[in-house]
Structure formats: structure tokens, C-alpha cells
Amino acid sequence: MMSQNDCAPRSSSSAFSSGSICSLTGTLLLLVWAAGCNGSPPSTAPAGGRVTYNGEPVANAVVVFHPEEGRPATGRTDDQGAFSLSTFKEDDGALVSNHTVTVVVDSPAIDSSEISAQAQTGTTQSPIPTTYANRETSQLTAIVKEGETNDFELELTD
């Protein structure tokens, strides 16, 4: 470890004074730090698709593509069950990777008595099986590839 005196200028006849070594070390550390901070984000590819449950479109669902590593991509289905994914910015797609896919449907507004009943029984109303809401239990997978259409039909069943 260097002390403050190690970087103080000294009178020396050598080509590298300790002051220039400290400056060089500081510059190198700054360059290494800047290179790490300026790395571009991982590659994404446009991706989307359609969610159906027993053949019917699933509206108002949040679809999440969970890559093996990195940031998940999310999208929301429209009335026809169609969605497009976003990872870093709107509609940029998903990371090029293998993904586990989860689907959760937003419940319509319910009154407080129904919430209380659901809390007491430990059940919630979902128009699709809740197994699709959890990465550990969802059997849905997708492979997002660069340069391909990446249009996924997510067919949910009981």
C-alpha cells in the first residue's frame, strides 16, 4: 500500500519518478474503470407473441421472459392476447437466450369482502392456472434468437 509520501515528487535522475508512476497508475485505473462502465448492454432481439388459455385469448396478462442470466423482458397482452416484449427500452425485445416464461393475469377490481374471503382461504381468483405465474412451476420455455421472428404462441391449459 502506498502512503502519501510515495506519490510526492522526489528529486531523482531516473526516467520514472514516483510522481509519474502514481500518475500512470491512476490513469490506468481510470481507463480500466471506464472500459467496464461503457460496455454495451447484452444483445436483444424483437420478440412477442400471443397467449391463449384453452384456445381463448388471454387479455390483460403480464408476460415475463426470464433469461438464464440477465434482465427479464416483460410485456402485457391486449384483448386478443397479443404482446410485445421490452427489456431495456420499449419494444426492444428480449435477451438472446433460453428463457423460462411466466404469465400472470391482472385481476379485475374486487371488493373488500372478496379479498377477505380469499385471504382466509388462501386462494386467489385467477382466470389461468397459477402454476404459470411462478418460474419454478411454469413449464413454458422460449428460445429468443438473433435475426429471427421470435413470435411465440403460448398455449396455456389446465
UniProtKB/TrEMBL annotation:
Organism: Maioricimonas rarisocia
Protein name: Carboxypeptidase regulatory-like domain-containing protein
